[in-house]
Design brief:
Elements lengths: L5 E11 L5 H12 L2 E6 L5 E8 H11 L7 E9 L9
Antiparallel strand pairs: 1-3, 1-4, 2-3
Helix pairs in contact: 1-2
């Protein structure tokens, strides 16, 4: 068991982020980083990412989300810290 800090966040990304491979790209990047991820489109046109893992790796995912895949246009990224001890995703 490691003592690496764990970070659990909710990331809401707005802009032109649906229909451009944002969720697929986020899942691919999360897998590369070893971060657990749940990604879903929201009715308002945003993408919601729920990520949990090593704090540095989660931060790298947040940095990725600020740009997203090639065809995306990210206008805003809102990151909300969640309880890292919670089981599963909301």
């Amino acid at each position: 068991m490691t003592n690496e800090p764990v970070r659990d966040v909710q990331i809401r990304v707005t802009g032109h982020v649906q229909g451009v491979g944002f969720r697929v790209g986020a899942r691919h990047r999360a897998r590369e980083l070893g971060v657990h991820l749940h990604a879903e489109n929201q009715p308002d046109g945003s993408v919601l990412l729920e990520a949990k893992g090593n704090a540095d790796a989660v931060e790298r995912l947040v940095v990725w989300a600020k740009q997203g895949p090639r065809n995306a246009r990210v206008d805003h990224v809102e990151v909300t810290n969640r309880d890292a001890g919670a089981d599963g995703f909301a």
